[in-house]
């Protein structure tokens, strides 16, 4: 079954909405039948909440589970509230423990408790293991469903063990090797097991050193490690090096996607929506933006106060006001470029808070170089129209502002990480506000010195 294109998907969504409005629910099954799982997810993301549950109930049982797993946790929670209890219990029981935990975080406590009580004891215990870790730790995102082998197992014994757990394990391509105390001692790939012909070969002859992270470590950092090492699965251990779970590459990529979306939203001065845009109510979009706008509005009063303080300087030479948008815009953009670069470098592990001195020096040099180029251009253009004195003010100010903006923009994300805050929060919006005010102070001080005002 092949997917449909964007245009056909829009038509399909429109057909579904029209069929629902006309209350021809029986015809919906025929509309949904040719759609793949990603297509159905895309349709559900575009539907209002009240219609989403109706469409979901018409999906075949196996496809329904795949569709549910592919939805964002927030949409899963809304869908659960629109389904009947027996529908919810069936889907919930068939989810993996890590997916159950993501869903439980979106549900009211009473609903979550009821769903947990409906699980068989073994599944409830696995889910409880994941629930026991902090919200942003990798323990909260790992899967406790895995298959292990022992160093002394022969290859046939190991393959038989993998085969017996193949329906329960999250993945069987990476097989952890543990001792009798469940401590992680190595890892072996299914490929190596299957291509080993002699029955006397043991797992300890094939295993290699494992890559593992503590369960309490940050989920994003663990996911980044999994992606950087190009692993199919990253092993998760407790404080005593006992295996407690695995992070598969698809879950790692999902964590990184969420982190990237969060950083981009905060760099732009808003909170992440945590759900597809078209499925987000307008009031939620407003809430995600209004607080930041209010904070930045208050911060902008600092710029107003600076202008008031130099009102007499502006009155003596009104032409200075012409260049204010250019100078504060250039400073803000320079600071944002530096902050975005360093925030990304932090996420990738290229820099750490202890590198603040090196980052400050590099960004100051970078800002000065940019300032020389832009300042020279500003001097030439301003001199042509307003004279060499005004050109000198613009050139010197651009040099100083670019140097300051780049240095501040590079250091602020590192300072945020040192304080335990999200570096993206300290990036573009706050840097722009700070650089605007500082840039105006520099501008008017340079003007007073050069022009003798």
Describe this structure in words.
With 453 residues, this protein is mainly α. It folds into 3 domains: 6-136, MgtE N-terminal domain-like (MgtE N-terminal fold, Alpha Horseshoe), CATH 1.25.60.10; 155-262, CBS-domain; 281-451, Orthogonal Bundle (Tetracycline Repressor, domain 2). The protein is built from 21 helices and 5 strands. The protein has helices at residues 6-21, 25-32, 37-46, 49-57, 61-70, 73-82, 85-94, 97-104, 109-117, 121-131, 155-164, 190-194, 203-206, 219-228, 249-267, 282-309, 311-316, 324-348, 356-386, 388-418, 428-451; strands spanning 174-178, 184-189, 212-214, 233-237, 243-248. A 3-stranded mixed β-sheet has the order 3-4-5. A two-stranded antiparallel sheet has the order 1-2. Helix 8 packs across helix 10 (121-131). The longest helix is centred in the C-terminal third of the chain and has 31 residues, at 356-386. The radius of gyration is 29 Å and the shape is globular. The chain crosses the membrane at residues 290-307, 368-386, 392-416, 428-451. It comes from Georgenia soli. It is found in: Cell membrane; Membrane. Belongs to the SLC41A transporter family.
Question: Characteristics of this structure?
Answer:
453 residues, mainly alpha, MgtE N-terminal fold, CBS-domain, Tetracycline Repressor, domain 2, 3 domains, 6% strand, cell membrane
């Amino acid at each position: 079954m092949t997917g449909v294109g964007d245009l056909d998907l829009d038509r399909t969504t429109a057909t579904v909405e029209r069929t629902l409005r006309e209350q021809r629910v029986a015809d919906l099954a025929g509309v949904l039948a040719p759609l793949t799982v990603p297509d159905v997810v895309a349709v559900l993301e575009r539907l209002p909440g009240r219609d989403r549950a109706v469409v979901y109930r018409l999906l075949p049982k196996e496809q329904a589970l795949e569709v549910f797993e592919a939805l964002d946790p927030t949409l899963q929670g809304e869908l659960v509230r629109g389904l009947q209890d027996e529908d919810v219990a069936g889907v919930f029981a068939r989810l993996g423990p890590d997916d159950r935990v993501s869903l439980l975080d979106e549900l009211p406590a009473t609903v979550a408790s009821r769903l947990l009580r409906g699980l068989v004891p073994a599944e409830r215990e696995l889910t409880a293991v994941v629930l026991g870790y902090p919200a942003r730790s990798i323990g909260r995102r790992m899967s406790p469903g895995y298959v292990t082998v022992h160093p002394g197992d022969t290859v046939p014994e190991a393959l038989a063990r993998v085969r017996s757990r193949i329906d329960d394990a999250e993945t069987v391509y990476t097989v952890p090797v543990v001792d009798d105390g469940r401590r992680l001692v190595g890892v072996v790939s299914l490929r190596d097991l299957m291509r080993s012909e002699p029955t006397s070969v043991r797992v300890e002859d094939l295993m290699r050193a494992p890559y593992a992270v503590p369960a309490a470590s940050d989920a994003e950092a663990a996911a980044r490690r999994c992606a950087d090492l190009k692993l199919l699965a990253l092993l998760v251990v407790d404080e005593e090096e006992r295996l407690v779970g695995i992070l598969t590459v698809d879950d790692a990529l999902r964590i990184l996607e969420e982190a990237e979306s969060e950083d981009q939203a905060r760099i732009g001065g808003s909170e992440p929506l945590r759900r597809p845009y078209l499925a987000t109510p307008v009031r939620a979009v407003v809430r995600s933006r209004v607080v930041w706008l209010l904070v930045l509005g208050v911060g902008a009063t600092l710029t107003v106060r600076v202008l008031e303080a130099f009102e007499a300087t502006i009155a003596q030479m009104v032409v200075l006001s012409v260049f204010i948008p250019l100078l504060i815009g250039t400073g803000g953009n320079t600071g944002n470029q530096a902050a975005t670069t360093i925030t990304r470098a932090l996420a990738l592990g290229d820099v750490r808070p202890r590198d603040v001195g090196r980052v400050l020096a590099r960004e100051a040099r970078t800002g000065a170089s940019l300032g020389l180029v832009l300042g020279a251009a500003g001097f030439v253009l301003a001199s042509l129209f307003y004279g060499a004195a005004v050109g000198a003010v613009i050139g010197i100010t651009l040099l100083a502002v670019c140097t300051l903006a780049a240095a501040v923009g590079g250091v602020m994300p590192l300072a945020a990480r040192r304080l335990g805050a999200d570096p993206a929060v300290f990036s573009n919006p706050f840097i722009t506000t700070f650089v605007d005010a500082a840039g105006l102070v520099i501008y008017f001080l340079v003007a007073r010195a050069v022009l003798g005002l």
